[in-house]
Transketolase, pyridine binding domain protein
Amino acid sequence: MARQLLFMKAINEALDQAMAKDDTVILLGEDIAGGVTVKHLEEENEDAWGGVMGVTKGLMPKYGRERVIDTPISEHGYVSASVGMALTGLRPVPELMFNDFIGFCFDAILGQGSKMRYMFGGKAKVPMTMRTMHGAGASAAAQHSGSYYGLFGSIPGIKVVVPATPYDAKGLLLASIEDDNIVIYSEDKTLYGIKGEVPEEYYTVPIGKAAVRREGTDLTIVTIGKMLYVAYEVADRLEKDGISVEVIDLRTVAPWDEETVFESVKKTGRLIIVDESNPHNNTATDIAAVVTDKCFDYLDGPVKCVCAPNVPVPFAVNLEQLYIPNADKVLTVAAELIDDLKR
């Protein structure tokens, strides 16, 4: 049975159901329970925090501190420990508070975890799912607002998912935890408050499969995360001019769904990728390069990317809003591709 659920509650429910189903699922992170050695939290109010955004709230009293583990402020320490746990039979789910902090624990992922299955001829499993946050729009400033899922996606041995709806937030997280490889599960902090239909039962959404959210015939827009809602606005506005837009929610950044994107481009002949990350060496440019190579004969114009500018996220609200890709920016780019259709 489905009901309306907040994005963050869908994540919480996925963690709850995964832990109930499999006692090897362990949560680790900074303040995900109540705080380390904080006396006033260890008695009456020990579940006060649930992580920086409260996503894990309620899980520690249910599963105990042996499975919901508060860690010191040492990302290198607890992510390295998580890789070790995964290699020895557990399914850890560490929470990296913000994806900007990846520098502190990159060796555990790039230097160790991502390589183990290859180094041991496919015999080693590293079933670690790292939850982290990305995204501008919350006035969290430069060190807490970047979108670096594309950076993770360039590493062999790692899968990267970016849900855009509450339904996918739950289903993709459960699929990630079931996976025997490292999965980076990246949550846009500005989506935590949106609601959508989420089934009560345990279910998974396949990793590596995009979703066609809206069918169209004239232009394809591929989106990552909250850029889905920008594409909806663009599609609505272009529809008034008689332009039919197909909207694809990528859902998985690595491996991204080439088949679905190719099929759409072959139908529409035009492609825009909307990606909140910075404009160089990112997922959007990778998709653009591959589509140009594989679908060149079907294209009626150049593949376009709409990304954030090549600067860190500003703190000032007005500058931050200018930083984030929006419908007007996409429409400006789209005008170049659909000009012939308007004549």
In short: The two ends are 48 Å apart (CA to CA). The CA atoms of residues 9 and 21 lie 18 Å apart. Residues 211-342 form a domain with the Rossmann fold fold (CATH 3.40.50.920). The chain has two domains: 2-199, 211-342.
